[in-house]
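in:
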């Protein structure tokens, strides 16, 4: 049986070097998928071809997102942005949505998924919100830092099997308003959105935490990748 091909997005430094955490690739492999790193390409046609050839898309973490994509000017708390990455991922997301192929979006990926679909986000939680939990944990990446409330009946709820889970946390940006056709399927105790999902597609899910660092010890994280790869196999 052919493994479903999962396109995995990559970060890029100022010299153009691509990097992807091995945990993303290993999590896809462990779940039965074949991970392929998405190259940076010029022009929209090659991006369209990538969307046609992959069975699912894994959007990884990384730098900040240019607020011009959701109609805002940059604020002081905004970090490093890569316009090329933003364009690649937004165009690719929109093609995958059109083709109704599965998407799993992690951390930055959750935010850019929401922006690509027409939502917006906080450029810097700590300047734009008050009374926050610690969303940039000072602990190992495999540590479950804070609790999350999962919306009953959501795709995430069906995967997690619970309306209350614990997650790790490494972010200063977050979804503010879910895109049209999306719901907030998970929230932290301080109200910060921790997950979004499409109500118009079989499997389009974004989570603000990093399950790729938890698959060895956390059953919910393992099921998240397994459900995604299974959806890609049947897409």
């Amino acid at each position: 049986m052919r493994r479903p091909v999962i396109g995995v997005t990559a970060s890029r430094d100022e010299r153009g070097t691509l990097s992807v955490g091995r945990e993303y690739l290993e999590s896809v492999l462990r779940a039965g998928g074949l991970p392929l790193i998405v190259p940076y390409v010029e022009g929209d046609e090659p991006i369209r071809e990538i969307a046609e050839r992959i069975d699912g898309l894994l959007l990884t973490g990384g730098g900040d997102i240019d607020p011009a994509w959701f109609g805002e000017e940059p604020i002081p708390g905004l970090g490093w942005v890569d316009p090329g990455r933003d364009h690649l991922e937004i165009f690719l997301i929109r093609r995958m949505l059109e083709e109704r192929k599965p998407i799993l979006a992690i951390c930055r990926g959750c935010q850019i998924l929401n922006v690509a679909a027409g939502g917006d986000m906080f450029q810097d939680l700590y300047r734009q919100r008050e009374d926050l939990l610690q969303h940039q944990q000072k602990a190992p990446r495999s540590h479950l830092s804070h609790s999350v409330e999962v919306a009953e009946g959501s795709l995430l709820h069906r995967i997690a099997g619970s309306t209350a889970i614990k997650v790790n946390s490494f972010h200063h940006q977050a979804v503010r308003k879910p895109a049209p056709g999306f719901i907030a399927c998970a929230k932290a105790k301080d109200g910060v959105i921790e997950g979004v999902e499409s109500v118009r597609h079989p499997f389009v899910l974004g989570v603000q935490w990093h399950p790729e660092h938890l698959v060895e010890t956390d059953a919910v994280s393992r099921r998240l990748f397994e459900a995604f790869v299974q959806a890609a196999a049947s897409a």
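note: The longest helix spans residues 83-99.
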